[in-house]
Amino acid sequence: MLIKLSGEALAGSFQFGLDPTTLSYIAKEIAAVQKAGVEVGVVVGGGNFVRGETFSSEGAIERTVADQMGMLGTLMNALALQSAVETQGVQTRVQSAVNVAQVAEMFIRRRAMRHMEKGRVVVFAAGTGNPYFTTDTAAVLRALEIDADLLIKATKVDGVYDKDPKKHADAVKYDSVAYSTAIEQRLGVMDQTAFTMCREHRLPLIVLDFNKPGSLLRAVLGEDEGTLVGGE
Ligand SMILES: Nc1ncnc2c1ncn2[C@@H]1O[C@H](COP(=O)(O)OP(=O)(O)OP(=O)(O)O)[C@@H](O)[C@H]1O
Ligand SMILES: O=c1ccn([C@@H]2O[C@H](COP(=O)(O)O)[C@@H](O)[C@H]2O)c(=O)[nH]1
């Protein structure tokens, strides 16, 4: 399985950066899934450091540069996550989509799959390696490349709503929703490119709240958790 972990959520109670308590907690949750015998890959976001679109909006920093900074933010998250998961007794490798040879391996698909076969968690950093993309799209891409059976978006909301629950108190949660609905209604929980790729390749997606203890494992075991996005 492939877990997309929101960067912003890793900031925990802080506005920016990493919250060590949140990091240890999520590392335990990921380690529990691996210890249950599941091959696990993780794509980390970088919203707790830099979002290229926002960062470049004032015009001082070019969009491409801001996006490169965003990708480097995901690398910081990946290194922190690697350390925290290894503290839980599970070997972990970081593979980056940009060359940072002194700190992480490059992304090599077959190598990533071999790591996972050996029981190592693989954390994919730097998104797709290209500006103008997001880590949501990178997560779908990596999930397809490693033949994942399931993509889980682990975030701060407990599922997909008919509108943004952070902005609308009357938002209603879906237990399950079709990709076409998510795309047509432009549901903002994941970017549209990512939804479109999931639909095209029939990749099942579960959106869940990672702050709920045991939620990742329950989703993997097929129990009712978050919102399942699938179908047409
Ligand atoms: N229809 C919707 N249902 C659920 N959540 C929604 C919806 N529309 C917008 N959202 C928002 O989507 C966000 C989930 O994405 P998240 O914050 O994890 O961002 P991300 O881009 O995946 O990660 P990062 O923080 O790394 O940039 C939630 O904060 C939620 O408020
Ligand atoms: O393929 C990618 C992935 C990400 N970026 C940049 O990184 C930031 C952080 O990623 P989030 O998905 O928002 O967590 C993103 O805003 C982009 O600026 C990228 O350029 N290419």
Name of the CATH homologous superfamily: Acetylglutamate kinase-like
Major sheet: arrangement of strands: 4-3-5-2-1-6-8-9-7
Q: How would the global form be characterised?
A: globular
Question: Low-confidence spans: pLDDT under 50, at least 5 residues?
Answer: none
Rg estimate, integer Å = 16 Å
- The CATH class turns out to be Alpha Beta
Helix % is: 25-40%
CATH T-level fold name: Carbamate kinase
By DSSP, the count of extended strands is 9
Layout of SSEs?
Elements: E1 2-5, H1 7-10, H2 20-35, E2 41-44, H3 52-55, H4 63-87, E3 92-96, E4 105-106, H5 109-117, E5 121-125, H6 135-145, E6 151-155, E7 176-178, H7 179-184, H8 192-201, E8 205-209, H9 215-220, E9 227-230
Parallel strand pairs: 1-2, 1-6, 2-5, 3-4, 3-5, 6-8, 7-9
Antiparallel strand pairs: 8-9
This protein binds adenosine-5'-triphosphate (ATP) and the ligand O=c1ccn([C@@H]2O[C@H](COP(=O)(O)O)[C@@H](O)[C@H]2O)c(=O)[nH]1.
